[in-house]
Specification:
The structure is a single chain. It is built from 17 helices and no strands. Helix content is 68%, strand content 0%. By secondary structure, the chain is mostly helical.
């Protein structure tokens, strides 16, 4: 009988890849191709916006952001609330300094504003929009409990085809990073990832307070409508409240600007003199096409497929409160742009809903098991 020879350490071969290897393979084989596909699908939108966008036809805040793009982190570059959009300002400034630029004859011609800055702002928003569309796909996959390239692609395309993509995102404003932060925050909420969600809430102080409000409202209404995991939802409510308090105190005590938005008297006066106009209805409500698709899919899934729709009341209540807060802040017909920050969430859930309708028998069984 032959003796068994010991195996040298160098000869040992691992048949199972490590967690790090799995992550790299997933990144290279799944996520990067998805992002590239969304980039290719949307660069026409970017070119059209760059060619024909004119800030003074609806994106007047570019006046404030222009000087922030030139001098980010400068507290004197603008007043509140614009000065808080520092993530957009820093990234746009880095794009400007990198030299990325496409010289072209464009509609927006104003000797007071450098075309390089305008391009950098649109390019930054476009890249962040694509990343938000990618995260919308991850939201869809989480709802479907597994990898699903088709649903992920549909979610991304629904996000890219939203009404406010051309009128509010691929512009000189700051919506791109805001959409991405909200999408990442909601995905972290779904995954019960406290620390990433806390990071999103903290960063939102320096990007857009609406993200903090939206995620906090989602946690509040989810807590009220569900009996499960109350501790987690309560923690997110507290985190959101703390982050919003920090933002609110910074505006009241240190950074002046539009004081009527942070004083009770100004808010009451604005609401008391509010009048519903056609512009608010068409630009603020009817423009929410991704929300309409989400609700239509949810209605079909509920009535014809018998699938539960737990996110519908939560997101409708959240949307309603954001509308009220936006009107109280005096935004008028621009309130639609405020609500549009939820677009990646609506896109992800709508895509997941479509897939569930197509495979309703399997998901009906899962719903009964989880009920």
């Amino acid at each position: 009988m032959k003796a068994v020879q010991p195996v040298e350490h160098s000869e040992v071969r691992h048949t199972r890849p490590s967690m790090q290897d799995n992550y790299v393979l997933s990144l290279m084989g799944v996520h990067i191709p998805r992002i590239l596909m969304l980039l290719v699908a949307s660069y026409g939108l970017f070119y059209f916006s760059y060619k024909y966008e004119t800030p003074w036809s609806g994106a007047y805040d570019y006046y404030h952001y222009y000087y922030m793009y030139l001098s980010p982190l400068n507290p004197h570059a603008a007043t509140a609330p614009w000065i808080f959009r520092q993530i957009s300002a820093v990234v746009t400034h880095l794009v400007l300094k990198s030299g990325i630029y496409y010289p072209n004859d464009i509609q927006f011609q104003d000797a007071r504003y450098d075309q390089h800055v305008f391009f950098a702002a649109l390019f930054t928003n476009w890249i962040f929009l694509v990343l938000a569309a990618w995260v919308a796909g991850l939201i869809a996959e989480h709802e479907l409990r597994g990898r699903n390239p088709f649903a992920s692609l549909i979610a991304g395309l629904l996000c890219l085809l939203a009404f406010y993509v051309q009128t509010g995102v691929i512009t000189g404003l700051t919506e791109g990073p805001s959409w991405l932060l909200l999408a990442v925050g909601f995905l972290a909420y779904l995954r019960r990832a406290r620390m990433p969600l806390l990071l999103v809430l903290a960063l939102s102080i320096f990007q857009r307070e609406t993200i903090i409000i939206a995620l906090g409202l989602i946690a509040v209404f989810d807590l009220l409508l569900s009996r499960k995991e109350k501790r987690f939802r309560l923690q997110i409510c507290v985190m959101s409240a703390v982050c919003f308090a920090a933002y609110f105190l910074a505006r009241r005590l240190f950074i002046p600007g539009l004081e009527q938005q942070t004083h009770l008297g100004g808010i009451v006066y604005t609401l008391a003199h509010f009048h519903l106009t056609n512009a608010i209805i068409f630009q603020g409500v009817i423009s929410q096409n991704t929300l309409a698709i989400f609700l239509a899919v949810a209605l079909v899934a509920r009535r014809h497929a018998g699938l539960r729709q737990p996110w519908v009341p939560v997101l409708l209540a959240t949307t309603a409160v954001i509308y009220i807060l936006g009107l109280a802040a005096g935004l008028g017909n621009n309130v639609g742009r405020l609500v549009s920050v939820l677009t990646p969430v609506f896109a992800g859930l709508a895509a997941a809903g479509l897939w569930k309708i197509w495979n309703r028998q399997s998901y009906n069984q899962l719903d009964r098991m989880e009920a």
